[in-house]
Amino acid sequence: MGLTSFLFRSLSTSELKIFNEAVAPLQGTLTATGGIKTAGIINDNIPAYINTEPMVGTAKLLIADWDGAYYIHQWFVENVQDGMDDCGYYEVSYEELETLLEVLEAVNKDNAKELLPNLITEEYDEDYWESIKNMKELARYLLNNFDWGVSPLFYSSSW
User: Fold this and answer.
1) Is residue 159, in this structure, part of any structural domain at all?
2) What Rg do the C-alpha atoms of the chain give, in angstroms?
3) What is the rounded CA–CA span in Å between residue 43 and residue 19?
4) Residue 38 belongs to what domain range?
5) Residues of 115-131 as b/e, b for ≥16 C-beta within 10 angstroms?
């Protein structure tokens, strides 16, 4: 089993009401997947999840998930999680995401080992650069479109 990373946001009050109505019939059938329980679909088929640890019972919407990209995960561990690689849920501020975007935009073949080292392999192949490109697009999108005043953004991972 490899690394999967997630970005979530909390549900707003109105979304939580819809979520609770959708989840009520599913209470006995939630599927556990590594500390996250799939709980239903709300608002245009967006999957909703109940975060079972450490904030029991809080509902979150999945914004993005991706496999691998250990170098991006390590950036979150070092810059958001205070060095704790514990698969917890950590709030990501606008400023932290902005800093990540700056790093992603600065990384190139000459400084990749310093800025976003690939700790799993020494290779900086097409998959590495594709994940950098995809994360840049996601970070730009979130910085420009995420409603930071309504609910926080969280990062988590699963091994």
Assistant:
1) no
2) 17
3) 9
4) 4-154
5) bbebeeeeebeeebeeb
End-to-end CA distance of the chain: 6
20 lies in a domain? yes
DSSP run (H or E) holding 4: strand 4-10
At 142, which amino acid appears? L
98 found inside a domain: yes
Q: Which two tokens stand for residue 14?
A: 């109105």
**In the structure encoding, which two tokens stand for residue 83, read together?**
């060095």
Distance, in Å, from the CA atom of 135 to the CA atom of 119, rounded to the nearest integer, reads: 18
**Do 48 and 19 touch, CB atoms closer than 8 A?**
yes
Nearest alpha-carbon partner for 116 in 156, 66, 76, 65: 76
Taking only the tens place, the pLDDT of each residue in 23-82 is 555 444 333 333 333 444 334 444 444 444 444 345 677 788 888 899 999 999 999 999
**Is residue 114 in a domain?**
yes
DSSP code at position 29: G
pTM, entire model: 0.76
33-42, 81-90, 111-120: range with lowest mean pLDDT: 33-42
Count of structural domains, the chain: 1
Segment holding 37, helix H or strand E: strand 36-42
